[in-house]
Fold:
Amino acid sequence: MKKSGFTLIEISVSALIVSIIATVLIVVLRGNLNTLKFGQKHMDFDRKILLTIRRMFYDLKHINPILSKSEKYGYILKGEEIGEPKPRKVYIRKSKDLKEKQDELEFVIDSNLDVDDIYNIKYYVTKDHRLMRETRDKSAKTTADMVIENVDSFLVTKDEKDIKQIYIKFMVSDAKKALKRDIDFAVRLESDFVYVDEQEL
Structure:
């Protein structure tokens, strides 16, 4: 009776084939993981930028309409009551330093139904290139939050042909400066009772 089994050569060939397949799978998997990591990095970076734009857009859009309670007229747009003209101001403060190009954007935002609940909001870039959002409540308490890091050339301009249009432009990069995006968008103020004032820092 013959004993059946594998020879040493057959086992060696099988082991070689398995190791080649494993090596190919590892190389492919590593490439896919690197691609996935690269894609995730881009997605996270773009998500931060999108949230920054949405936050600024949302704040500016909520300057008006401002509803307030009037004893005579019910709910009105604030400032439309006779003897109480209070237009909303949007301040653009232009940087004197042409190399830095860091402007400031400041405006007042009211909650819809509470006249006393006034917030002052300011966007500016610090010396370490962080875009900040500073709020001031009715008791003059200020709170500053970082919106996004690695911001350069934060420029805000008004449209000379359209007094209700504001342009915001800045460049943002990741920590290693590998990813960079030029952000350029416009916000149109919704009410006629808003005006833009451009000043120098």
The chain has one domain: 39-200. The longest helix spans residues 8-61. The longest strand covers residues 165-173. The radius of gyration is 29 Å.
